[in-house]
Amino acid sequence: MASAAAAAVGETPVVDEAAPPRALYSFGTPWPEFNAGLSYTDTFRCADADITTTLIGFYSVNYKSSAPVPGWIQRIRNGQITVDGEVVTDPETTIRVGSKLVYHRRPWQEPFAPHLLEVLYEDDDMVALNKPSGLQVLPKGLFQQRTVLAQLQLKDWKMASSCRSKRKDMQSHPVPVHRLGRGTSGLLLCAKTKIAKVRLASYFAEGAIDAGNKRDETEFGKERKISKFYRALATGILDDDEVVVTQPIGLVHYPGVAEGLYAACSSGKPAMSKVCVLERLAHQNQTLVQVEIHSGRPHQIRIHLAYIGHPLVGKSSAQSTTKLYLCLNDPLYGIGGHPKLDEPESLGTDGSFAYDGGYERPVQPVPGDCGYHLHAHWLVLCHPTTNKMVKITAPLPEILQTRGTPFCS
């Protein structure tokens, strides 16, 4: 547990790669060809009783980020919307205050995603998984079924009846207490009990608060309840052996992403990453790094490495949800931590729409695309019920393993 102690006092430990950890077991149910579809329910409430609202008017105004007007017309005419339990196919139907509206999104074939998960650590309070790249953690966008959460729900989590009777806060299945990007592989922590969920979530929240309060390197290594370490392959050669990045991260406009894209942003929320050089690969013009993060902002490591001029190395070909494209570095973030944008895209202003009525999928890369080398390698935490220090490690992909003696040793 030497590395755990080092993390607690602020040193920069590196896990020994000579004997990579082995999974306790693996589980997973193959995905069906199509998911079950979704239903979105609204109750119509009108602030001005003198204004008449039609079905197409309601959806085109309130959900314009979901589909253009012609797309919503198609959905209505296809019988995908009910009003007070009755299918309505006339877009100009007037809706009454208090009416229950339900849009039924038809089943669709989700993009490819792996389904097997390895269990690295498990006790009565929590379970740590080794998430493969390409698998989303929680439902969003095109991925509503092919997620880590779905596999946790499908598995039969057997527990001795004596233990279950003692633990009234047991959940029906474990739930993730933090997120990893779909393209990021590695360690994902899940809580089995309500108490563990609350306490583990508070550990991650404390890190975000600390990132806002501690703005210099000397404060970075203060003892905390959880420390997270990632392994990444960055473009270019980092000059300094250690770099602390404190660039705030916030939402910026990005075509095809209605809620915006997280990127380097002066008005964003505080974020802190400590980058440690492990190996400089001069012939490839790449640097293998370990990154410790205080906060857990979306895409934080990708943004911070790009911000300092060293975006993640891309895979020889990156698969988005809609196409295959070549990329030599991170497909989404460029120098400065800002999104790459070759040319502006419109959101269906020409009246075009996809087969399901929604907007055509963006040509530009989007946050859920894979195509970069980032792995949640290990963490050390204070156990949520025993208060003992626990260290968990996820085996490294071959490309992220050191070839010689790491600098941060």
TrEMBL record:
Q: Which GO terms describe its biological process?
A: enzyme-directed rRNA pseudouridine synthesis
Question: Which keywords does this chain's UniProt record carry?
Answer: RNA-binding
**Where does the source fall among the domains of life?**
Eukaryota
Q: Where is the Pseudouridine synthase RsuA/RluA-like domain?
A: 126-306
SUPFAM superfamilies in the record: Pseudouridine synthase
MF-aspect GO terms: pseudouridine synthase activity; RNA binding
List the catalysed reactions.
a uridine in RNA = a pseudouridine in RNA
Please identify the protein, giving its name as recorded: Pseudouridine synthase RsuA/RluA-like domain-containing protein
Species annotation: Eragrostis curvula (weeping love grass)
